[in-house]
Design brief:
The complex is a heterodimer. Helix content of chain A is 35%, strand content 20%. By secondary structure, chain A is α/β, with parallel strands linked by helices. In chain A, helix 6 links the parallel strand 5 and strand 6. The radius of gyration of chain B is 19 Å and the shape is globular.
């Protein structure tokens, strides 16, 4: 069987082991019921998921699966410290075969494994939370949406900004209701990280070659640094930027209609994927076109700012970031006042620091045309991951809809992969509605 | 940032509002850098949980709890809190992570630990925890444990200029050499399998609060402590700034692994209040 067929059917394991059976013993989860979950992929992001899930309550892990003994042992020990005894598995197919009373599975593995694992879990009657991207290519991503729809099970994609109170406030209150920051014409996005070595691993915990090959990896270096190898994913651009493209899709309420891009292996010439990519998308917003620039940098922290999405409009700017330090709102000098929105506690005017105010007075300099700065009114008191997982578990209990089901996330997958095509083509790509059909 | 020599590599990382560094003696410098990078990831993870400046950290979540309420925390947060309360008890309250609570009650009177799970219950209002006197040393312990997984055992870890944790000595050496004391006449120590920390008013002014008087501690200008772990050394050096000389000597008599040195206020001489047997701690003066 070719890999493509394999992904389309999604229920037959590479080893030939069949896993297309429902978790018949599992009663449907209801309100207040403790959820029985398993984790596939106990690396860095898997640990973030475990930690966030423990803070939620009402969740009991039954199993941890990872092909790396070092990671699955960490997961087992971590959960034991939460008084949760779990069984560990190397192969998720064996886990699905033996764990008959699960409600949901959390997937935090490299992108190329997502479709196989998520489709098998959905077919087995389980709800799935999957870290983004959906998959390493669009056919595999489509297969996941198809399986979600066909099985009627939940497939949440881990674009956690969708559950971040600051982002939700920005869209629901400021953009949709208050129409701030006016007519949006431009969005600037950046995702930057400083240059770093490829990730290593403790030598005595090296995975044997036969195990690596059985699970599709060429070697240990590629297992640890899969993000840099096209075989496993869309490279750093898709991994880092697709969450921001999802915010654009969400806020602008439409997928892009064109993309132009430039990128290259400018610095890390020993790594197969692009290390620097600059893209410009055109979105057909209902109020007029919006041009979105996007910078993906892996050689600099961007003067420390790292990640932000900045929506620029005729009345101001709305800058968002998962780091609260970089979240702010600015009002254009000639825009109507925002007192009404301050009164409604939609935003808070940023006080000029006393020292700065005195300094300006002493200097007797009046600066006209300054942008007034405002802040978001809320503190985000749980981790971004926890808020999104809470939404998933609530949906599993039937207490509300998912905020980022696979079909909602799909357009950002298309937008990300099409940018890579635009780099290759060296020209602007027009995107048709059919590109986003699922 | 990194600095390399033929047999050692040193990497730096900003976290907990200060500079951390790891120096590793290892012939494979790339392997050493990769191990250090993973240790810094662990440091960032701990900072996310322990920082009072992050609204979603465990410490902030605990501080927002109503009396009688509980919350689940990361097991490492629980571990750090347990060590902090142990040292509070051992030092008679001279070290207290709730020194800012008002009206003042010691941390041990304000929080309770869950039996089987890492949960924290808050017993009273006015919770305000500050792990600034122990968090950096605690982080060094965890980073060293992670590096041990990598078989990177010849390491010196440093948080700011105040706390170091030495594991095995570099090849051919007795230990890792560090300087401490007064700038004009620094003393040198050779450390292995030991943590060392200093606190006082020379750098940040009188920033250490005596939990009993709720006023800045001024008895000792500087205090230094050795201990088996970074967390203990970090916390004890803070406590020793607050404690009297006699109290410090009495404390050290009960735990021969601890060394204590102080510089009295308005003086420039370093006093050794307690020096453990060298064989017990692998500590040596030069």
């Amino acid at each position: 069987m070719q890999r493509r067929e394999f992904l389309q059917t999604g229920v037959v394991a590479a080893s030939g082991l069949l896993v297309p059976r429902l978790q018949a013993a599992a009663a449907p989860a209801g309100a207040g019921q403790e959820l029985r979950v398993a984790l596939i992929g106990a690396g860095y992001q898997g640990r973030v998921l475990m930690n966030a899930a423990m803070s939620i309550g009402g969740v009991r892990f039954r199993a941890v699966c990872d092909i790396w003994e070092y990671a699955r042992n960490y997961g087992q020990k971590y959960l034991a410290r939460h008084d949760q005894e779990v069984r560990v598995y190397e192969d998720f197919r064996e886990m699905l075969d033996k764990e008959r009373e699960l409600d949901a599975v959390l997937i935090a593995t490299p992108d190329f494994a997502h479709a196989t694992q998520a489709n098998a879990c959905l077919e087995a009657g389980l709800h799935v939370y999957c870290e983004p991207m959906l998959a390493h290519n669009l056919p595999a991503a489509r297969s996941m949406v198809d399986t979600m729809r066909r099985t009627g099970k939940l497939l949440q994609v881990g674009y956690q900004r969708r559950s971040n109170p600051r982002y939700r406030h920005a869209f629901e209150k400021l953009i949709a209701e208050a129409h701030l920051p006016g007519r949006i014409t431009v969005v600037q996005m950046q995702r930057a990280q400083e240059a770093a070595d490829l990730r290593g691993w403790p030598k005595r915990f090296t995975i044997p070659d036969d195990v690596l090959r059985r699970f599709g990896y060429d070697d240990m270096n590629q297992f640890r640094n899969w993000i840099w190898f096209p075989k496993y994913c869309g490279g750093p651009y898709c991994a880092f930027v697709s969450p921001q493209l999802d915010v654009c899709q969400w806020f602008l309420e439409a997928p892009p209609r064109a993309v132009m891009a430039s990128g290259g292996r400018d610095f890390f010439q020993d790594r197969p994927s692009l290390d620097t990519v600059m893209t410009v998308y055109e979105y057909p917003h209902k109020l007029g076109p919006v041009r979105v620039s996007c910078a993906m940098l892996t050689t600099t922290s961007g003067d420390g700012t790292r990640q932000f999405e900045r929506f620029l409009g005729t009345e101001g700017s709305l800058q968002l970031s998962e780091n609260p330090r970089w979240a702010r709102i600015g009002r254009e000098p000639n825009a109507p006042d925002w007192d009404r929105w301050i009164d409604k506690n939609y935003l808070v005017k940023q006080e000029v620091e006393a020292a700065n105010a005195a300094s300006e007075k002493d200097m007797d300099v009046h600066v006209s045309g300054d942008v007034e700065q405002y802040q978001f009114p809320m503190a985000v008191t749980v981790s971004n991951c926890q808020a999104h997982l809470e939404n998933f578990f609530a949906a599993v209990r039937g207490e509300g809809p998912l905020r980022c089901a696979a079909d909602i996330a799909f357009p950002s997958q298309v937008a990300a992969f099409k940018a890579l095509e635009a780099v290759q083509a060296g020209s602007t790509l027009q995107l048709a509605a059919s590109d986003f059909n699922i | 940032m990194r600095t390399d020599s033929p047999s050692q590599v040193t990497l730096h990382h900003q976290a907990m509002a200060t500079d951390f560094s790891i120096t590793i003696a290892c012939p494979d410098s790339r392997y050493a850098r990769q191990g250090a990078a993973e240790a810094f990831l662990e440091l960032d993870r701990l900072e996310d949980r322990l920082s009072a400046f992050r609204q979603d950290s465990d410490v902030s979540r605990i501080s927002r709890l109503d009396p009688g309420a509980t919350c689940v925390v990361d097991p490492e947060t629980l571990h750090c809190l347990r060590v902090a309360l142990d040292i509070e008890q051992a030092t008679g309250g001279a070290f207290d992570i709730a020194y800012r609570s008002h009206p003042h009650r010691a941390a041990s009177e304000l929080i309770r630990f869950g039996d089987k799970t890492p949960t924290i219950a808050v017993l009273d209002n006015a919770m305000s925890l500050d792990l600034g006197g122990i968090g950096k040393g605690f982080a060094l312990d965890h980073m060293a444990a992670l590096l041990a997984d990598w078989d990177l055992d010849c390491v010196l870890l440093r948080a700011s200029k105040s706390t170091v944790l030495a594991r095995n000595a570099p090849p051919g050496k007795l230990g890792w050499e560090v300087q401490f004391g007064i700038k004009a006449s620094p003393r040198r120590l050779t450390l292995s399998s030991l943590a060392f920390s200093g606190s006082g008013s020379d750098v940040k002014g009188h920033h250490i609060i005596d939990p009993h008087s709720r006023r800045p501690a001024t008895h000792h200008r500087l205090a230094f402590a050795t201990a088996p772990t970074g967390a203990e050394a970090d916390a004890l050096s803070t406590a020793f700034v607050v404690m009297t000389d006699d109290a410090i000597r009495d404390f050290c008599r009960h735990d021969p692994r601890i060394a204590a040195y102080v510089v009295l206020a308005d003086t420039a001489s370093l006093q050794a209040l307690h020096e453990p047997r060298e064989s017990a701690t692998k500590l040596s003066f030069q």
